[in-house]
Amino acid sequence: MDIVVENLTKSYGQQKAVDDISFRVRPGEILGFLGPNGAGKTTTMKAITGLFAFNAGNIRIGGKSIVGEADEVKKHIGYLPEDHALYTEMPVIDYLRFIAEIEDIEKARISERIREIIRTTGLQDEKHKKIGELSKGYQQRVGLAQALIHDPEVLILDEPTTGLDPNQIVEIRELIKRIGKEKTVILSSHILAEVEATCDRIMIINKGKIVADGTAQELQNRAKGQQVLNVGIAGGEPDQIYNELKNLENVEMVDLSDKENALFEVRSVDQHPPSKDIFDMCVRNSWYITQLTPVETRLEDVFRQLTMN
Amino acid sequence: MKKSWIIAKRELSVFFDSLIAYIIIVAFLGFTGFFTWLYGSNIFFVGQASLDTFFSIAYWTLFFFIPAITMRMLAEEKRSGTIELLLTKPVTDWQIVSGKFMATLILILVTLVLTLPYYFTVWNLGPIDHGVVWSGYLGLLLMSAAYISIGLFASSLTSNQLVAFLLALFIGIFFHIIFEILAQSMSGNLADLFGYLNLSSHYDAISRGVVDTKDLIYFLSLTFIGLVLAEFGLAKRNIVE
User: Fold this and answer.
1) Minimum distance, in Å, between the CA of residue B105 and any CA atom of chain A
2) Are residue A171 and residue A70 in the same domain, yes or no?
3) Fewer beta carbons within 10 angstroms: which end of chain A, N or C?
4) What is the pTM for the complete model shown?
């Protein structure tokens, strides 16, 4: 089922949490939402689940509008909220049974389905414990279990790996990837490595607007206009070298990254590689270059560039 | 209806898995038992085989107990965020509200059933008017339904349980006492209006053994309005400014 978001706008009072956002996600695609806190990720996700009405726009899932046919659409959505919003006083297995009944799973299949999902999420040893007694990581698994129990076509996961240990994170990522092969998945995170590792497509949201949309590779290429170099220069005083570097025409920013070994991080002006200038500068001052390596633009840089202003 | 029942089942399991249900039942039986059998103008003092004392004590006890049961039902779910997760499931606001209503009414019903030994005991002591007893129970149940819906409405407005409790009592006190006082101190149409709104008069009529459709309609419509308002309280997230 496709998720189609058209001109979605949602404001809280005067403030626009989501401002005229449009995008489309197809089955077999995992879309990663990135953005600083308060950027509108959670609001967008909640709107897709039909939790509240929005000011303008429309959301259609499998061609049906979440506004008009909420009951029909909701059956196909699995949602994991960011806070562990679970009934802490209930044992895991009772809770999953309750969710299974609410999700209209046939009575005869419920027990089997619960067994399956408990196995998939690794909750076998915890199934009789009360949810409130579980660690955060296990609560997160219960959250995933309730989102997956009815085998939904569309999965909305708000920060699915928070609170998990590194092994669990890898497991859950694998699980999401496996599910994402057939289903339509949107997940949000502020851990860039996670989005890079799990998602086919990344969308960066800032202040309620989409500021970038593409694969990790595409986003990195976009920021490639500016070059970042690690430069090592010897034969002079680091402070003097720093000042000279700073005064170069094509250099936008210099960072003294290691004073001992006179290592600098140099960021160029758009489209102007500064290597030649640096070389000429060294010749002028009879210094010599110990290192000159271009730095791969990381997603972090793209993210900072797009969301820092 | 099926979904409401699923919600109700969950609420009931929470009642009986935690101490809530047992505390309510024990406290209710203790309270009514003490005043019915031991203290003041108790059954032996009155010298008649009637449960009037029990019904008037139960009437007041439920007035305080019901808000205490309903206060957490929506407020706590709002505070912990569980209501949001529930509302992303294929279930409507009305089904959630009516499910919680059913669960509370069942808890009250169980509590009242446990007081039936009072009835059998008094029956053994002397000639008792069975009709009055049963209509007394009916009155308590109808009154409970009305207060549960008011309690749910109060709980739907806030995410703080204490606020929900006090708000329910505040609304309840109007139906319990204040409308009666207003009716007495005014005249004409207003007096009629407040007289009609006064819950005690309808309750008294039923518990005397006079089951009139007028009173039934009063209780059922009060319950229904309370539940509809609770549904609105829950659905106000859908109001776009």
Assistant:
1) 20
2) yes
3) C
4) 0.83
| Whole-angstrom distance, CA of residue A147 vs CA of residue A156 | 8
Q: Is the pLDDT of residue B191 over 90?
A: no
Task: Tell me the Cα Rg of chain B.
Answer: 19
Range of the domain at A121: 3-220
Kindly list the distances between the CA atom of residue A250 and the CA atoms of A238, A257, A272, A275, A290, in Å, as whole numbers in the listed order: 20, 19, 6, 9, 20
Domain at A240, CATH number: 3.30.70.100
Domain boundaries, chain B: 2-234
Please determine, for the modelled complex, whether the ipTM score is greater than 0.95: no
Which of left, alpha, beta for A57 (phi over 0: left; psi -120 to 50: alpha)? left
CB-based contact (8 Å) between A151 and chain B? no
Residues of chain A with pLDDT under 50: none
What is the rounded distance in angstroms from the CA atom of residue B183 to the CA atom of residue B198? 8
Tell me A51's DSSP state: -
Q: Are residues A147 and A271 in the same domain?
A: no
Q: Nearest CA of chain B to the CA of A226: how many Å?
A: 43
Q: Is B91 on the interface with A (CB under 8 A)?
A: yes
Q: Count how many domains chain A has.
A: 2
Q: Which residues of A17-48 are buried (b: 16+ CB within 10 A; e: fewer)?
A: bbbebebebebebbbbbbbeeebbbbbbbbbb
Whether A11 sits inside 8 A of B13 (CB atoms) is: no
| CB distance B134 to B209 below 8 Å | no
Q: Point out the residue among A46, A85, A99 whose CB comes nearest to the CB of B80.
A: A85
* Domain-ending residue, one of A155, A188, A220: A220
Task: Give me the mean pLDDT over the B201-221 stretch.
Answer: 89
End-to-end CA distance of chain A: 36
Give the H/E segment covering residue A233: strand A228-234
Domain C-terminal end among A186, A205, A220: A220
Quote the crossing angle between the two packed helices B20-33 and B93-113, to the nearest 10°.
Answer: 40
